[in-house]
């Protein structure tokens, strides 16, 4: 049997897209572990940086926001900008959304996707089954895209591992393992600063190493946001408002500008509520760069260049690289070689046209891999509001 659509991914983007496709009456098979990035690849005890208004998965019918989930679960409603969402609540919300709107989810891995002539795509699952779909939506999120800067490679010969000397922040769920240990966290984004604060609270001695002066900074609390600028899910600013509500023209900007904005807008900045948990508890070394990482006496040692241009060495028991994610089609190895080479890409990211369709008709990308085409809002849950209905509409028109 040929299914019209396969959605690969059961995080916020995959679930929201699948809900919109189902509402249009399109038969869809959906694959993945629900909310797994949040459950296994983010630290226990984490709080979401996004506010409740920016943390709902978009649904085709009302009644499925995070506030609706709170009502259904009989817990305190999370609605105002001062309500902070624990990751555990957000995971439970995503699972509730899945059970209500995508109940047929298959907790199976897609091993490969290849083109199959004019019929569409051949998918192989790790259950051993193969089938054909007319269209495929890739919503694999952060999966396989963790970025380790090459200069840290010297202390991670076999790649980053949580039990080795150097790891990536996505490899940790329980930071209590660093209790009584010296830990270096590389990075200055929310993930770096919150990982550092949680590890310090668990009893580790933590130092954040960040590149550049004044990079460790925290946002303003809701009551100190400027009043005369338009509101957006990320705070009050004209740029954030335009990028949140009008991502349509983004893909017509020059490639240089698009890639720069994805990296910079909504870039490194700690949440307002993290400041008190961080300052005075975590040491900060601002450096102009990390030159290399070595191993000495079984411990990782970072050779850094200070802001004044001197060389300095920083040692610890373990280094966590909270250095984010890079989209690279080459790393999406479940996409067959022929498919990957046929895709038009820009700096490793798929070039998307109207309705999130790639240059290969029938192959769609949403979430993080769509950020270079539709803007930084695609890196966040609230991007589902723009992406999911448009993708579903395009797909219904072309393949429904
Ligand atoms: C530490 C951290 C904190 C964050 N905090 C926030 C926040 O506060 N607010 C916010 O809006 N965003 C936040 N983000 C960003 C957030 O992770 C993304 O917005 C969101 O998870 C993207 O959802 P997604 O559905 O695209 O991918 P993911 O949530 O990563 O889900 C990927 C899905 O793909 C599936 N999958 C992958 N490969 C396959 C395969 N081959 N076969 C089958 N299934 C597959 C997985 O099982 C999973 O279901 C944070 C990110 C990090 C790292």
Automatic annotation (TrEMBL):
Ranges of residues in domain FAD/NAD(P)-binding: 4-212
Highest taxon, organism lineage: Bacteria
Gene Ontology MF terms in the entry: flavin adenine dinucleotide binding; monooxygenase activity
Signal peptide segment: none
Keywords from the named record: Monooxygenase, Oxidoreductase
Record SUPFAM superfamilies: FAD/NAD(P)-binding domain
Coiled-coil segments: none
Name of the molecule in the record: Monooxygenase
Annotated organism of origin: Streptomyces olivochromogenes
């Amino acid at each position: 049997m040929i299914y019209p659509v396969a959605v690969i991914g059961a995080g916020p983007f995959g679930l929201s897209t699948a809900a919109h496709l189902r509402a249009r009456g399109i038969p869809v098979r959906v694959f993945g572990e629900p909310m797994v990035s949040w459950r296994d690849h983010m630290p226990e005890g984490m709080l979401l940086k996004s506010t409740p208004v920016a943390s709902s998965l978009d649904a085709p019918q009302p009644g499925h926001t995070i506030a609706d989930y709170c009502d259904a679960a009989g817990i305190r409603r999370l609605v105002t900008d001062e309500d902070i969402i624990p990751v555990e609540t957000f995971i439970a919300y995503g699972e509730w959304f899945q059970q209500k709107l995508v109940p047929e989810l298959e907790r199976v891995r897609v091993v490969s996707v290849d083109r199959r002539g004019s019929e569409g795509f051949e998918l192989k699952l790790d259950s051993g089954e193969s089938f054909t779909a007319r269209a495929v939506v890739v919503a694999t999120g952060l999966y396989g895209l963790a970025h380790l800067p090459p200069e840290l490679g010297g202390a991670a010969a076999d790649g980053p591992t949580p039990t080795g000397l150097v790891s990536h922040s996505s490899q940790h769920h329980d930071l209590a393992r660093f209790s009584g240990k010296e830990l270096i966290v590389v990075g200055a984004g929310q993930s770096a600063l919150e990982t550092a604060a949680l590890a310090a609270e668990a009893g580790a001695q933590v130092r954040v190493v960040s590149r550049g002066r004044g990079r460790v900074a925290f946002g303003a609390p809701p009551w100190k946001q400027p009043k005369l600028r338009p509101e957006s899910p990320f705070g009050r600013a004209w740029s954030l408002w335009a990028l949140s509500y009008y991502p349509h023209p983004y893909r017509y900007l020059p490639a240089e500008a698009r890639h720069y904005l994805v990296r910079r807008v909504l870039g490194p900045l700690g949440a307002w509520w993290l400041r008190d948990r961080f300052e005075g508890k975590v040491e900060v070394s601002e450096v102009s760069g990390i030159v290399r990482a070595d191993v000495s006496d079984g411990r990782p040692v970072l050779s850094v260049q200070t802001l004044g241009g001197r060389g300095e060495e920083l040692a610890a028991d373990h280094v966590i690289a909270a250095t984010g994610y890079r989209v690279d089609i080459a790393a999406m190895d479940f996409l067959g070689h022929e498919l990957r080479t046929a895709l038009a890409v820009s700096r490793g990211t798929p070039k998307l046209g109207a309705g999130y369709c790639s240059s290969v008709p029938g192959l769609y990308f949403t979430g993080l891999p769509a950020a270079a085409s539709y803007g930084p809002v695609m890196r966040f849950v609230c991007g589902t509001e723009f992406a999911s209905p448009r993708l579903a509409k395009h797909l219904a028109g072309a393949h429904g």
